Amino acid sequence: MIGEKIRKIRIIKGYSQEYIADLLEISQSAYSDIERGKTKINLVRLKKVALIFELEVNYIMDFNDNQFLRKSIQTSSKQIDNEKEMIVELFNKERELYREQIINLKNEIAYLRSKLDEKIP
């Protein structure tokens, strides 16, 4: 039943019935009737719901709990990989900056030693 699928997706997304109803410009009770299957949802309203959920209409129509969880896990895994790559890249850049600082400090020390050697008879 499409209303049940919409309800599950809404809950997973963390939206309230009031929030969705406001965006659809209907009352909360009218929206509740859609989720409970008392009122059939028309295609225009279903497209708006899909837009709110940032999903395709077909995805809502074919929705099942396992499918959504798998997609969430895959997305989370990709995000973790991207964050990991960014951290490694930042670490490598920071390491290179430290290397440059060390070289500059060594050069400065060498310069100061040479100046001291010139002054000491």
From TrEMBL:
Top-level lineage group: Bacteria
Keyword Cell cycle in record: no
CDD domains (UniProt xref): HTH_XRE
Domain HTH cro/C1-type: residue ranges: 6-60
Keywords from the UniProt entry: Coiled coil, DNA-binding
SMART domains: HTH_XRE
SUPFAM superfamilies membership: lambda repressor-like DNA-binding domains
PROSITE patterns: HTH_CROC1
Annotated coiled-coil segments of the chain: 88-115
Signal peptide interval: none
Keyword DNA-binding: yes
Record-linked PANTHER family: HTH-TYPE TRANSCRIPTIONAL REGULATOR ANSR, TRACRIPTIONAL REGULATORY PROTEIN-RELATED-RELATED
Designated name of the protein: Helix-turn-helix domain-containing protein
Organism for this UniProt entry: Flavobacterium piscisymbiosum
